[in-house]
Amino acid sequence: MKLDCKIKIQDRQRTNGLATIKAAKGVVGLAKSNSDEWVLIVRLFKDTSATQYKLRNNVQALLHKMINNGMATVQIKTPSHDVQLSEANVESLKTLLSSIRLASAGNDLPSTIKSTSVNAVQKLQRPTLQLTITQVSDYPTLKGFPSTLEKLTINTAQLRTPVDRRIFTLKNLHTLDLSENNITQLPSKIEMLHLHTLTLRANQIRSFPNDLKCPVLKYLDLSQNQLSALDETILNLNTLERLILSSNHIKIIPRHLLRLLPQLQVFNIASNQIRVIPNGLAASGTRLHTFHYGENPLVTNKCITCQRFNFTLVELALRTVVKHRIPYNFQTLPRTLCSLLVKYELCAHCAAPCLTNFGEIFVPRQLSANGVTVHVTAASQSFAVPVQERYCSMKCFNYGLKRAGLTQMPI
Ligand SMILES: [Zn+2]
């Protein structure tokens, strides 16, 4: 039998702690030697040769506490090596350990365990983990992709919607780069993968499937596409740490962006149609540290954009729901109210929630004061961005106007 896994061999005699050997991909196998005894064969893919360990009366211990996580250690008596196995298939690892136990006691193994050979183990090729395709002629149209791929890059300008479905069957894939193609819709089958990095730069993407779920996605690059809005689908990807949306046609940054993407550290919205930055992005206490906003038609003058203080019963009720974190869903509240509740803004003075009635001003503010590194590409643009500030009441609004140097309203 043979088992692919990560392997680390440590010599128990050398316990000075200096030898910090890293685990590496390899294969372990069981073979019957010429003297009719079972041996353990261990080979790291980076080495050409394999190591053999006699098993009969030569196993000091089998450490298998973490076997259900695909980890175990075989302690050999002579030489005094610990063969540490990890990232192994759990069932195969259990079979291997029970076989080693039998062989170390001098028993023969059941006929279901087929003997391998040193030669066979040495001939094994390292599994293909990465594949980059930049020419159409390299595309594996007939033979398909190696199932072991962890990282796949296809920059051929040939991929279109629907994207080749074979990509979505690669179970080990964590990084997918489909930049510089002609894809028009983010493929919904993306959620069949466990991606942490998805790059779709320079395509023709205009739309998204609804309710896309990518539970471990950390990096999403949709720059140089045809997006006209920051879609709700993106706002549902709540594990995102880096979101790159430069060179699209986006007009509005959703006010609840950082509330829905609490892990976001880097946000790039340069070269779009943004006029103002919502107050939530300028707030302290978020993880955002880098914000690219250059080459947008930002408003330059401070101004009043809304003053609506006719408090309705709905506004007061919604404020109460937000303030006291009262749970709600589509069964208990109408859909329109639910969508309003997602998009609330906090008063820039007293932090009370504002939903449909508020006063609003655009006022230049230094984002860097909040620990956010701002990046501009045009030399003419200043580091002060027009922040959209909302105020919950006439009293708070007047405070904001005074701070911004605008004329106060009579109460
Ligand atoms: Zn207020």
Which class of secondary structure composition applies to the elements? alpha/beta
In this entry the ligands are: zinc ion
Termini separation comes to 84 Å
- CATH class membership of one domain: Mainly Beta
For the biggest β-sheet, the strand order reads 8-9-10-11-12-13-14-16-21
Query: What is the fold named in CATH at topology level of one domain?
Result: PH-domain like
Radius of gyration: 30 Å
Second CATH tier, the architecture of one domain = Roll
List SSEs in N-to-C order: EEEEEEEHHEEEEEHEHEEHEEHHEEEEEH
Please count the helical segments: 8
Number of strands: 22
Helix content: 10-25%
Task: Give the overall average pLDDT.
Answer: 88
- Indicate the overall shape: elongated
Under CATH, the homologous superfamily of one domain reads Ubiquitin carboxyl-terminal hydrolase 26/29/37, pleckstrin homology-like domain
Please give a structural write-up.
A hairpin with a 6-residue loop joins β18 and β19. The protein has helices at 90-104, 118-123, 232-235, 257-260, 279-282, 313-323, 335-342, 394-404, and strands spanning 2-11, 24-32, 38-44, 51-54, 59-63, 72-76, 81-86, 130-133, 151-154, 175-177, 197-199, 219-221, 242-244, 266-268, 277-278, 290-292, 303-307, 345-346, 353-354, 359-366, 373-375, 384-391. The mean pLDDT is 88. Among the domains are: 2-13 and 22-123, PH-domain like, CATH 2.30.29.180; 303-368 and 384-404, no CATH class. The protein starts with a strand and ends in a 7-residue tail after the last helix. The chain contains eight helices and 22 strands. The radius of gyration is 30 Å and the shape is elongated. The protein is 15% helix and 25% strand. A nine-stranded parallel β-sheet has the order 8-9-10-11-12-13-14-16-21, with no helix packed on it. It has a seven-stranded antiparallel β-sheet with strand order 4-3-2-1-7-6-5. A four-stranded mixed β-sheet has the order 15-22-20-17. The chain is α/β, with parallel strands linked by helices and 411 residues long. Bound molecules: zinc ion.
